[in-house]
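Methods — Computational structure assignment.
A single polypeptide chain was analysed. Its primary sequence is given first, followed by the predicted tertiary structure written as structure tokens.
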Amino acid sequence: MVPALLILLGAMETLQTDLFPGKTLLLLPPVNFTIKVTGLAQVLLSWEQNPNQGQTIATVKYHVKINTPQEEDYETRNTESKCETILHQGFSASVRTILWRDHSFLASSWVSAEHKAPPGFPGTSIVNLTCTTNTEAGNYTNLKSYQVSLHCTWLAGKDAPEDTQYFLYYRYGSWTEECQEYSKDILNRNTACWFPRTFIHSKARNRLAVHVNGSSKHAAVKPFDQLFDTQAIDQPNTPMNVTAEIEGSRLSIQWAKPVSAFPIHCFDYEVKIYNMKGYNQVEKTTTNTFVSTTDGVSKYFIQVRAAVSPACRTIGLWSKWSRPIYVEDFKVE
């Protein structure tokens, strides 16, 4: 669905035949408006043109308004619309028929539908859900061979009974999968999940839907949904084969790009150079080499980390720092 800016005055809803002198044109609201849940954090809105319209209007459109959980509105010529949204707070929407004609605006009354919030006691759903993805390291020869892992963590709700157990599912596109590998808190409740391999694309741009529900003998546990931008939660692998050498006052550092489906030109790097005497230098570079001048101290530690550059995707995380390597100039006394 494509959001559109609508300048809609309240009075427009009641404008009818007075907009079109000499014409008897009355827009009727759509009928059979329904909301159907088609997947995790995914609904299908559908409706039909009013059979009593009595006139064939080729230019008619529909104005869809999402009321909850977050307000949004847009226009469409279709009689159905897919929507990705969290559902644990409930979902409601409205639709009306609209028509622009001779620089005037005509609208029918609204019809509305609602998907109620699932049952559950307040304070029992999870909090602080965070997820990250990572491309599995290995010797791969083509894009299809890359596997993406998913790791999510959360905290139990403050009012969740001690016997509460949580279960996590993710949806990417049309694929939905339940977690099989959990980590637990001191009360043996699931508070982290690990998918070693997923169906998430290694250059994913779609949103990732995560759903966590729960069970308890003492209370109905309220579920929780969250949508993630896959580019924003993807953490690259660390750069590989970091090496360094000192020649005179020149410190040269090299490394290989991280294991990734992205090509070498898609990476930015940060280089950290430090020693035990308080020297600390962090520099950015877009190549896999860096040259610095030493300050007469013979011993240095080197670390490098990487991020996919804005030229190849809009947002993302930095990798973890590579393991420190040690370099020493034996000529310095």
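Note: The first helix runs from residue 230 to 233.
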